[in-house]
Design brief:
6 helices; single chain
Amino acid sequence: MTYDFGLHFTQELGNRFGPDPDSWPATAERVTPFLAIVVDALGVDEGLRWFEAARKAHLRVTEAERDRSYNFGFAHYLDTATGAHEDVTLPVIAAFEALKAAYTVARHEDSTDVDVYFECAAQACSRLGAARRDRVQQLEQGRERRAAAAR
């Protein structure tokens, strides 16, 4: 499926880091394709759920690091939060691996917390989902008006 995730994600990055992409963190350009894979593989609504799960997984990792407690790692926490192990399909595997890659890349940026990317991705999915629901509603209203006019 094709979505305008990249455009909406870029808008969210602009809201967060300012309008000049040259001032954005270096990792922003590198994580974008990975995050787009999630939405392409799973769709907007499921992508939103996965980005929220990724935020929770990252939080668990950072809490374990801060508390110096046992850390099962991002992949384990992501798997637990998404239930990916229960439905191993090609789209799920693609989304899972893409989120792991985005996480690894983003963690190399000292100035930006990876949570910012997941938050922006979730916001982009919210926008896309709302736009899609509005479009479906408009189409349904158009059909109803045509049906009423035909009577």
